[in-house]
Amino acid sequence: MTTPTDDLVRRARTGDAEAWRALYRAHAGRLVVWLGTRPTGDAAVSADDVAAEAWLVAARRIAEFDGDDEEFAGWLFGIARRVGLNLHRRSARRGTTPTEAPPETSHHEGPEESRVAIDWARQVLQRLPPRERDVVACTEVVGLDVATTAQALGISAVAVRVARHRGLRRLRDQPDLAGVRPRP
After folding, report:
1. pLDDT band at residue 180 using 50, 70 and 90 as cut-offs
2. pLDDT tens digits, one per residue of 82-110
3. Where do the domains of the chain lie?
4. Which of 15, 50, 128, 145 could form a disulfide with 84, with the two C-beta atoms 3.0–4.6 Å apart?
5. Where in this protein does the record put region Disordered (predicted)?
6. In 3D, which of 137, 135, 132 has the Cα closest to residue 147?
7. What is the DSSP letter of 64?
8. What is the pLDDT at residue 1?
9. Residue whose C-alpha is closest to residue 31's, from 157, 129, 148
């Protein structure tokens, strides 16, 4: 039995522009937020650049994809993770680091509270080891489920659960974060 989201993915596979727009609206914002929590190690590689490249790869490879909307999210996030790693490696090989860091800009301009909350989340997540940071960002920041997170990060669902548990415990154990919420 097909659901409306399965139909959306099926339509996108056939090149339906409206279906692509709907998938983009559903996943683009949280993809950029998630990519923004991942360290690139290179000021020349922004979350927006990685997301744009990931969408292009997804459009080229959609015919190979077989799944529903939630599986599409995991597939897309996995593509973005690999694209980010490739862009970082390519930039490191070419030595294309800018002499001056570009100003921090966001295409997701919203209320001031939203920007403050995102900055706060990034600072908090930087305290975690890389795997825990990626898992907590996927599950807690952008709201992916365990299976989708596992697919996006290329790890098992058990590894996701363990990393999530450890990461949240580490954050709870930090005295300066106990009961703290981001402030505008």
Report:
1. low
2. 988 887 777 666 554 444 444 454 444 45
3. 1-98, 110-184
4. 50
5. 90-115
6. 135
7. G
8. 47
9. 148
